[in-house]
Write a structure and sequence with these properties.
alpha/beta
């Protein structure tokens, strides 16, 4: 298929829900330069609503952890081989892998070797998982688009072209948040303490950690009469799973309020957030809400990570990593972390109650989160999707 400079064929490969949102924003921004461009590859509902042609179901790539990936490895390898053949036949003007590094980087490397332009959008966490990976990433792509300001300097040490484009989530939250509209939207009283509970979005996470989070919420509610606990389900499958778990719990006024979606409203409505480690910790930071973070991976994944000394950081939650990267001190811990063996209902309860009872600490955390929000915006005009699109257009060498 010939490449038309005015209407290029652009391939996007997104791996899960967060990548689908990034891809949708990117398509919108790229259409400002190429109104007639055609977008193909792997994407979800949001991307398809913007005219994207998805060759495969995005859920094929929505896996997490070593054990989960290993069990699906033959199918993933077949899918990647088929996708590579289709892309080589189509000859897109550029291929953009959106996150999903375990799948995308190998694909991008082969496509780059075959003469296609490649970009990786969302840098793998090289600051946590072996900086030397930057060299391999450079072999796979012509440019890396970074969401965090501390990432391009790491790539620069390896002679790799990387651009900070700002974090798209920083565009979705105001710098100063307002609790009242969120509580009204969720029909929560304005004068009672509220805990938002986000126990994970993947089914495997809920199976592994859901009951521990729910037990902690029950203990916190018992220690704080009048507390309202709100749980935003990330998707329909999570909603059904949580409904089953909650059916076994108390049904009085202390019972959690389960809502379908509305995660941002739940965060904004809360005084404190108790949640699983992941992107939601960044969203909670941008909502300016103090949080307690917990996580437990499968025993096999944990043993593999420890055996090969893969982790290069002693903190896991993004707000804590950003605080250190932005010069707030190497011992700064804005969000208490309870990981693996420390992930117990008792410890989650204690840490959450301490936050509820220390208003001075909560105020200091909110002030620090406002500073980090500004850092993620990067003082760049416009939105993150616009900057990502501009970096791609620059590689293509044409556009409006």
């Amino acid at each position: 298929m010939p490449t038309d400079a005015a209407a290029p064929l652009i391939a996007l490969i997104a791996g899960e829900d967060s990548g689908d949102q990034l891809g949708a924003d990117l398509i919108t921004a790229l259409r400002k330069h190429y109104p007639d461009a055609r977008f193909v590859g792997i994407g979800g509902r949001r991307m398809q609503e913007h005219g994207f042609e998805s060759w495969y179901d995005i859920r094929e790539l929505s896996l997490f952890g070593f054990a989960e990936v290993i069990s699906h490895l033959p199918r993933l390898l077949r899918l990647r081989k088929e996708l590579m053949a289709r892309l080589l036949a189509a000859k897109p003007a550029i291929v953009v892998g959106i996150d999903a590094p375990d799948f995308n980087l190998g694909l991008e490397r082969r496509l780059k070797q075959a003469g296609l332009r490649t970009v990786h959008y969302v840098s793998p966490s090289i600051w946590a998982w072996r900086e030397k990976r930057a060299d391999k990433i450079g072999q796979s792509v012509h440019r890396v688009l970074c969401l965090f300001p501390m990432e391009p300097p790491i790539y620069a040490r390896h002679g790799i072209d990387a651009r900070f484009v700002g974090h798209p989530l920083a565009d979705r939250f105001p710098l100063v948040s307002d609790r009242v509209p969120a509580r009204r939207a969720l029909q929560l009283p304005l004068d009672v303490p509220v805990l938002a509970l986000l126990p994970g979005s993947r089914h495997s996470e809920l199976e592994r950690m859901g009951n521990t989070f729910l037990e902690a919420a029950q203990r916190i509610a018992a220690a704080m009469p009048g507390l309202r606990v709100v749980i935003p389900a990330a998707n329909s499958r999570a909603l059904a799973t949580l409904q089953g778990m909650l059916a076994r719990g108390p049904r009085d006024d202390s019972a959690p309020i389960l809502v379908d979606g509305h995660a941002h409203e739940a965060m904004l409505a809360a005084d404190v957030v108790l949640l699983a480690s992941g992107t939601a910790t960044l969203e909670t930071m941008l909502a300016k809400r103090p949080m307690v973070v917990g996580y437990r991976v499968s025993p096999l994944s944990y043993r593999i990570a420890r055996l090969f000394n893969m982790l290069k950081t002693d903190v896991y939650a993004l707000p804590n990593i950003l605080a250190r990267a932005c010069g707030m001190g190497k011992d700064t811990l804005l969000a208490p972390e309870l990981m693996q063996d420390d992930f117990t209902a008792e410890k989650l309860t204690q840490a959450t109650l301490q936050l509820f009872r220390d208003s001075e600490r909560r105020g200091a955390i909110v002030a620090a989160f406002e500073q980090l929000h500004e850092a993620l915006r990067g003082h760049l005009p416009g939105h993150a999707g616009d900057h990502a699109a501009a970096a791609i257009v620059e590689l293509l060498g044409h556009g409006r």
